[in-house]
Design a protein that fits this description.
This protein has about 425 residues and is an alpha+beta fold. The protein has 14 helices and 15 strands. Strands 1-2-5-4-6-7-11-12-3-13 form a 10-stranded mixed sheet.
Amino acid sequence: MDSRPPREGPWGPGVETIPLRAAPYRDLCTDCGVSRLADAKACGTACQFIRPDYAGLEAAVHGRARDPARADEDHFGVFLRLVRARLRAPRPGAQWTGIATRLAERLLETGMVEAVLTVAPDPDDRWRPVPVLVTRAEGMAACRGMRMGYAPLLALLEPALARGHRRLAVIGIPCQVYALRALERRLGLERLYVIGTPCSDNTTTENFHRFLANLDEDPCSITYLEFRADMLVELRYADGRVRTIPFLMLPIADLPADFFPLTCRTCVDYVNALADLVVGYMGGEGRQWLIMRNARGEALLDLLGDEVELGAPTDRGRRDGPVKAFLENTRRAAGGLPLRRMPKWLRPIVGRIMPLVAPKGLEFARARVEMKAIETALLVPRARPRRVRHMVPPHVWRLVARYGIQPPDRPSG
Ligand SMILES: Cc1cc2nc3c(=O)[nH]c(=O)nc-3n(C[C@H](O)[C@H](O)[C@H](O)COP(=O)(O)OP(=O)(O)OC[C@H]3O[C@@H](n4cnc5c(N)ncnc54)[C@H](O)[C@@H]3O)c2cc1C
Ligand code: SF4
Ligand code: SF4
């Protein structure tokens, strides 16, 4: 156990950061924090990139593994229901309306947990995530918003236990949540609530700064960025300006080939399969999108009462065209061929039309999950052929079979 004292950070009372051990080198690692625990070898059984057992952990956490015969479970994992949602009073600084941090606030307010593990912005760099332990509800406000980068969140488990906390909540992205669930039994917690977010296309904070510098000549003035479900990137600035850029107009071609690390290009869990409740946006058509996976997830949502407005998700359009275009471009890139890019003059026009014709609501979310699965299915056999059998779970192969992609040991045809 790490018995070093907590360090009060600059985020206000009840939010602390803790000195961490250095991280040993690991291949395919997002520094979720496990390698910084006293037993750094725990990575061998805890890592989603080594030999994940999604079915076994789903059964342990939700009572059953995902069932391909149930509508949408191959895409979204085990769930009781999917809803569109928003806080009636959106919180300042939140990425969307602030449901993720409000849930954690309620857990602390009601005494259901003693501490929340999450990330706060580095005081010197708003985009850099720093793992923190929050013990007072009012501390959660400092953690709102999305940061790009990796934070060794789970390294705080030992200090939290050392301080006697036995009822915990964790807000985490999928690679953190997988490792948390893999270690859960040995932590000896009395209670654990896991609030997850979907996650895709993460990269190092340093890389992200290069991306911002390509978007604006004054990148430091950008305070918010989101890849919205209507295929526009929304930027907000310190002076209150808001700017949207169609995905097609993004300077992606100017980024180096290694901009997105191999981890995030081969990640198999976009929708955070092992969280109790997932707070995302991609199935929400302009609102937030919640996946309630089990009874704990439902109990979490109950904590918000009338504060949250709920509705049925929308589901419109067809994903086949965009997903097939993505597949073709991913294959071309893998084969070293130039991407099929439309002429520069046409891009602003198509960029503005695309949101109108693109799939919406759940169909958009299915499209994104399939694109991610395609990237994984094409890339892992090329980049880490020996990991394919253990690293890529069966649901990924079922998702890509629709597009004629088979596991490498099963020739297609
Ligand atoms: C890198 C990344 C990629 C994402 N991609 C998608 C996506 O493709 N589709 C989708 O539907 N949703 C995605 N999300 C989730 C989405 O951006 C929102 O965070 C989520 O919908 C919650 O919104 P909110 O207003 O309720 O969050 P808030 O109440 O503002 O809380 C956000 C929570 O996320 C935590 N957080 C912020 N940055 C990180 C980070 N780097 N690592 C770990 N935790 C972090 C914060 O500490 C806070 O607890 C992504 C999130 C991240 C961090
Ligand atoms: S478990 Fe976490 S720290 Fe260990 S190798 Fe995997 S991502 Fe890295
Ligand atoms: S894309 Fe996957 S591997 Fe990368 S940070 Fe997100 S959850 Fe982790």
